[in-house]
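USER: For my understanding, would you kindly supply a protein sequence with its structure tokens?

ASSISTANT:
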Amino acid sequence: MSEEASDAAKAGTENTAQGGDSAKDGQFTPITSQEEMNRIVTARLNRQAAKFADYDELKAKAEKFDQDAEASKSELQKAVERAETAEKKLGTAEAEKQRLAVIAKHQIPESLQDLVRGDSADQLEAAAAKLAELAPSAQRGPISPTEGLQPEHQSHGSSDWLRDEFLNH
């Protein structure tokens, strides 16, 4: 209640300065009627309301700023996600390139290439070396399309080609 009396006293002093009913020597004049009190309180409320007159405008600006910040944040977030996706794809491509280089180095057959797995170059090398030991045919190099076929012979009409070969040599 003392704050209200203090506010009323200040309002009365301000009222005096604004030409209200008071002594001319600048002394405090007590409030004597309800109408005078209502006038002083209304003046005080109007002054306080004037401080916040542009509140709605500032609130609208703050909301617009927040929306713009959110939109730019969304754009930034999208750019970050695109960058992360690109880095992930690049990492995957580099890992596959490294895996294929190890496979080529150890000449792993195509049917066994999916068994070469690992997270590092050392793991890939170890897997490829182990697989190369288990599949020695992979070490031989390219296969001739005629490999394993019997040589052509000239038949002299005889059905026993082996005897003909011994007789001719």
Confidence is low (pLDDT under 50) at residues 11-23. The helical segments are 2-17, 34-51, 55-106, 121-134, 161-168. The longest helix spans residues 55-106. The chain has five helices and no strands.
